[in-house]
From TrEMBL:
InterPro entries: AhpC/TSA, Thioredoxin-like_sf, Thioredoxin_domain, Thioredoxin_ResA/DsbE_sf. It is found in: Cell envelope. Pfam families: AhpC-TSA. Keywords: Cytochrome c-type biogenesis, Disulfide bond, Redox-active center, Signal, Signal-anchor, Transmembrane. Residues 53-198 form the Thioredoxin domain. This is TlpA disulfide reductase family protein. It comes from the Bacteria. Residues 1-27 form the signal peptide.
């Protein structure tokens, strides 16, 4: 009897993990509501871009690993700069729609101390590298093949595994200041970054 129970338990565990990681569609909440049930203190405006007041902002957990190009990258190394994190996949059509906007804004704001980092999730590495070349993406992407960074790298409720693309803006203290669980236009992306860029880091 015990022999028959073990495989069933393993199947249930595997099924639960697959459900948690499944990114079967590019779906983002139009209102930017929190996923995962965490109390993340996001306040959402009509356009679906959510913000957090400076004294309530959570910090992401470790966001480090290998990029699509094989280099080592740790988002924590960018502390002191405004960081834009974009969660994307090569299979995601809305990601393709927003990619030219991200490439342009990243190039425009580099000199102002804004760093862009992609988190490429549930994707084929070769196709994702081609995606970056096709859209002339000027910044690196962490390669998150199995969605571990998406699931474990953020406070509970800050992102939703099925909301791809998603974008978060970190302030100069490395804390989450704004979030959008949808594809962004150039205007929307700039509107997320501008207020954070205008802030000063703690102690300045």
């Amino acid at each position: 009897m015990s022999h028959s129970r073990a495989p069933r338990g393993l199947l249930l565990t595997a099924g639960a993990l697959a459900a948690a990681l499944a990114l079967t569609a590019c779906s983002g909440s139009p209102k930017g509501t929190s996923g995962g049930g965490g109390n993340t203190n996001f306040v959402t405006n009509i356009g679906g871009i959510a913000t957090i007041t400076k004294d309530e902002r959570p910090a992401p957990k470790e966001l480090a690993g290998e990029t699509l190009e094989g280099d080592r990258l740790d988002v924590a190394d960018f502390k002191g700069k405004v960081v834009v994190l974009n969660l994307w996949g090569d299979w995601c059509n809305p990601c393709r729609a927003e990619a030219p906007h991200f490439a342009k804004v990243a190039g425009d704001l580099k000199s102002e101390g804004v760093e862009f980092v992609g988190i490429n999730t549930r994707s084929d590495k070769g196709k994702s590298i081609k995606f970056e070349k096709d859209f002339k993406i000027p910044y690196p992407s962490l390669y998150d093949r199995y969605g571990k960074l998406v699931l474990n790298g953020f406070p509970k409720g800050a992102v939703h595994p099925q909301a791809i693309p998603s974008t978060l803006v970190l302030d100069r203290d490395g804390k989450i200041a704004a979030r959008a669980l949808k594809a962004l236009s150039e205007k929307e992306l700039r509107s997320m970054i501008a207020p954070v860029l205008a802030e000063k880091a703690d102690g300045q």
